[in-house]
Amino acid sequence: MPGELFDSVAENLLQNALAKAHQLPALRISVSFQPDAGGRLTICDTGKAIPQAVAACLFATPVPSQNGLGIGLYQAAKQAERIRRAEGFPADVGDALLALAEGDVAGYEAAARSVLASFETRIEYLEDIPVADTVLALQVLAAQRGLAVSLRSPLLPA
């Protein structure tokens, strides 16, 4: 994930947690960052979960709240969309990353299969080793989010 997108999402999540803690002094917030495999930021609190109907809209539309306009995660999704369409960035890789960010298993699977198909038609590979390394990295990210799918190819480990 590009640094500017990570920073935007992280800042939004932290601001939301702090605003919630200001309203609910007994609220406990934990923040952790694990740098392995590209990094993973986790922000949790002991408050009530947002309703499922609201969660489903978080990346698709602004979701007004008591403390703001509700555009932070929506803007992050729009930034991811712009990166996905950037010249020179493989669109199917961008699709896979966006699907992972949105928790879209079907979208991720379609995009990951497209990335894998692009590797299977290549005649040149980095270091002359025929492996779908981008797919391997995507699968690690997907597994961390509970979204990994079964992919088979001679270019992937059995």
Task: Provide structural commentary.
The chain has 158 residues and is mainly alpha-helical. The protein folds into two domains: 3-81, no CATH class; 90-144, no CATH class. Helix content is 49%, strand content 8%. It contains six helices and two strands, in the order αββααααα. It has helices spanning 3-23, 52-55, 72-84, 91-102, 105-120, 133-144; strands spanning 29-34, 40-45. A two-stranded antiparallel ribbon has the order 1-2. Helix 5 (105-120) runs antiparallel to helix 6. The longest helix is centred in the first third of the chain and has 21 residues, at 3-23. The protein is elongated, with a radius of gyration of 18 Å.
Give the secondary structure arrangement, pairings included.
Layout: H1 3-23, E1 29-34, E2 40-45, H2 52-55, H3 72-84, H4 91-102, H5 105-120, H6 133-144
Antiparallel strand pairs: 1-2
Most strands sheet: 2 strands, antiparallel
What's the number of domains?
Answer: 2
Main sheet: which strands, in order across?
A: 1-2
Strand-and-helix sequence, N→C? HEEHHHHH
Q: How far is it from the N-terminal to the C-terminal residue, by CA? A: 27 Å
- Taken as a percent bin, the fraction of beta residues is 5-15%
Mean pLDDT: 81
Instruction: Describe the global form.
Output: elongated
